[in-house]
Amino acid sequence: MTELFYTLPTYLHEVFVLKFDGWIVLGFVAQAFFTMRFVVQWIASERARKSVFPVAFWFFSIGGGVLLLIYALYRRDPVFIAGQGLGLVVYIRNLYFIIITGRQTSSADA
Question: For residue 41, how many C-alpha atoms fall within 13 Å in the half-sphere facing its CB?
Fold first, then answer.
């Protein structure tokens, strides 16, 4: 167990300091976009007093998904690539439905 404490600082230094580059910055920016989608959804739901997904949710989803897909492609991670690629299809499709209907529908309206 003590080996963990001796190697953990070394591991954290390697991951967060030595490997820090522009791609890591892109990854953090992408993750921030993804986090913002939940923040805007939470705020919109609190204001409406029911669960809603504002259009901004889908824009943040697409922005974060594209940036994370670029990051995953660079890292050559097939699991991450498949997950972000398929997620983008869903985000774009939902935004398409909002655009063609001219409004967003809540589950209560359906």
Answer: 15
Return the pLDDT at 103: 67
Dihedral sign, Cα of residue 46, residue 52, residue 56, residue 58: positive
Closest alpha carbon to 52 in 63, 62, 43 = 43
* pLDDT band at residue 96 under the 50/70/90 scheme: very high
Other Cβ atoms closer than 10 A to 101: 9
Comparing CA positions, the residue from 20, 23, 15 lying closest to residue 70 is: 23
- The Cα–Cα gap between 62 and 49 comes to 26
